[in-house]
Amino acid sequence: MSLLGKVQSGAQPRRLRDLWYGEPGVGKTSLAAQTPSPLIVSLDDGAGAVSADKLRIGSLKELRDLLGELRQGRHSYKTLVIDVLDEVERWIACDVAAGFKDEKGRKLNTIAEIPFAAGYKSSIDSHWRPLLADLEAFQSATGIGLVLLAWAGEGKAPDEAGGNVYDKYASANPVERRLVGGFLEAFDGLVAKTGARDAHEAGCGE
To answer: How many CB atoms are closer than 10 A to CB 178?
Structure first.
């Protein structure tokens, strides 16, 4: 067939595969409810007033079980909306923290307690990459659109005189956390070589 014979006319529908983020309450869920035949998987209370099919789940296992049921095709949904990824992050953080112990063998309460940001690094390989691979395989197998919702906003350090008040250590971005974790690990290694016991100021040359 010639190239001109492959010309397509009219609008070509695009399978949704989007990440939408914004401050809580700006209308992410309401907008997602306008996608074709959506099922809103509600992980928090943000979808209560939205007129669309909703399902409340409370764990990663339930999310994966749902993907399995949707793969069977006994439904009319064309879009899967996960609202919000921040809750998924909380589940993952709890799972990762449960797998670490402190130097006295006690279980840790939060992922932030794991030294050298190792918990955040672990979460990427042990949870986030497999989950994203599962979602990609699910969409390839079903053709169902995916819309992932997330909250925007970063932590801010106390407003002190001068300097950068952006709190990079409290970022919700896994990539940024991994970069900051690498910096902290390198810094701790340098401090160990000097034998210093106190650090009065440190910067990363940003």
So the answer is: 15
Q: Give per-residue pLDDT as tens, 2-25.
A: 888 888 888 766 778 999 988 888
Q: What is the pLDDT of residues 135-147, one digit of tens each?
A: 999 999 999 999 9
